Amino acid sequence: MAEWTDRAISLGLRRFGETGAILEVFARAHGRRRALIHGGASQKKRGPMQPGNTLQITWKGGEQSLGYFTAEMESERASRHMADAEALAGLLALSEILAAVVPESEPKPELFDAAETVLDLLDEPTVWPALFIRWELGLLSMLGYGLDLTTCAVSGGDDGLTHVSPKSGRAVRGSEAGDYLDRLLPLPAFLVDGVSPPTPVDIHDGFRLTGHFLNERLFSDLNRGMPEARPLMIDRLERAGRLSPR
Predict the structure, then answer these.
(1) Does this model's pTM top 0.85?
(2) 42, 124: one domain
(3) Low-confidence ranges of the chain (pLDDT < 50)
(4) Residue 180 lies in a domain
């Protein structure tokens, strides 16, 4: 029987049988994994395993079996954000995206660390929306769908970048886009210079940018749609005034 221990972000728990449950996690050194939890249907065990919590897990099982998890709480976030609609929506969106795209049993430690950074800052409402957008850009890059926001696709210059081609994923100077300007996606300044404070319009444009490439590249290749929690998160941010369409 094989065994390993790892840190993991819970991605959700579903009932299995009368008293058990199957826990899905994103483990730092083992990728996305599922395994049985004895007594996982009980309220006592369900609470710590809510999406977005970080757990210390031990897996035991055969090479071809589902196996079993034992888990201990390391960082509880779900209950902490229960009264904050925007933060809770962000937590669920991040968890659902991870569950949809992280390869099974494939380690992605950099993606894990970046996800934890976002989760740990969800109680900073002026910080986390822009960080979430950067995380989505990093997610695209780590999974082989990265954008090039460093130089203009038309001139090769590295200044005055204001838009992104929805086809190539390359940055463009709006002044050189000509008749194609209205077909391009706005590129928020904070994603270019790393200094400009993001406005609510920037946050809208950032999520529009990453959402386009998540849909057209990543989720299209996976033959699935965007997780429902992401548009809900964007709606919550708009209601709170953190995001504003043009």
Answers:
(1) yes
(2) no
(3) none
(4) no
